[in-house]
Each structure stands twice: as C-alpha cells, then as structure tokens.
Amino acid sequence: MEIKNVLATIQTVGDLERHIADLYKHLDPQGLVLSIPGVGRHLAPTLIGILQNIERFHSEKHLRGFCGLFPRRADSGGVERAGQTLTQGGNNRIKQALYLAADTARKTDPELAELYWRLMTVKGHHHKQALCAVANRIVNRIFSVLKRGKPYEVRDREGNSITLSEAKAIILERYTVGENIRAGRRSNRIEKTP
C-alpha cells in the first residue's frame, strides 16, 4: 500500500495507532520484542522499525554499537571534554527508546532491577549511567529473542518463570534504591561550566 493511500485512511490518533500496530505485527508476528520487560506497544514498533532485520547484525556487540549505547572515546568526551553528554554515536531515536525501556524494565524485571540497584548502591553510579547499563542488557535481549525466535520470560534468581506481580514484589523487597542514595548521587554530579 502506498504511503499516500495509508495517510488518506488515517483520520484520528486511534487510526494511526492501529496502523502502527498492524505494521508491527507484520514485522514481528510473534511479538518477540514486546515480550521484553520495559518494551511496550509504543516502543516495540520504534525499535523494530529502526532495527529492521536482525540478520544484518552479526553479534550483540554489533547491535549495541549500532544503538550507540557504548561510546567510543571520541564520542563520549573525556579529560579534554569533561561534561559532554554520555555519547554522541548511534541512532538518537533508538537510544531514547532504549533509555525509556530501561527505566520501565528496572521496575519490572528482577535481573535488571538487581543490575540497576548494584550500580547505584555498590558501584556509586548515577541514575543515567545505571540506566545505560540496563539498556545494554535490553539490547542483548532484543538480539537474543529475535535470533532464537522465542519470547523472553521473566525469571527469578533460581531461573523459575515468574509473573509480573511476583517480579515487582521481588524488586520491592530486594532492589529498591533509597531516596538518600539518589540524592547523594545527584549532589555529586560534576557541574557544567558555561
């Protein structure tokens, strides 16, 4: 169907959302990307639309490089360019989508919540640094589910499949980052010079 014909049929936001859902079902009929915690019905079409065919990526590292979540030294600043944003490499749309997915996933998947919690509490990372690490894990999961052709299953530490409510209970019990830690990380940020 031509774009002009499609646009002519879209009258409301609801029509557009239905059309996007139909296109997503065409690109990912099993809903594999949707099975990953943090990736919802709005982010999944964005991710799959940008990535297109997973076969063009030969490894998880290749996919992470495309997404721009692990910066090269020239992309991320350093001593000579302190205060630069985390990375300038990669596709901005996919980085934003993965960042949003990571923020949700850390609240719904115990493995990702544990990673976020450990980075914030033990390693002393800031919120954005910890989210970027979670986003990298999500990229690995996207690669894995699309390559294997099987949906992702949320599991506990023992490897047992669990429900969303069980996952949230585990996170609340074990992996909640206190406000005092968050406030401390915010106060330790390097101030940007004008």
Automatic annotation (TrEMBL):
An annotated GO BP: DNA transposition
**Mind listing the GO molecular function terms for this protein?**
DNA binding; transposase activity
Protein name as catalogued: Transposase IS116/IS110/IS902 C-terminal domain-containing protein
Location of the Transposase IS116/IS110/IS902 C-terminal domain? 32-116
The uppermost taxa in this organism's lineage are:
Bacteria, Pseudomonadati, Pseudomonadota, Alphaproteobacteria, Acetobacterales
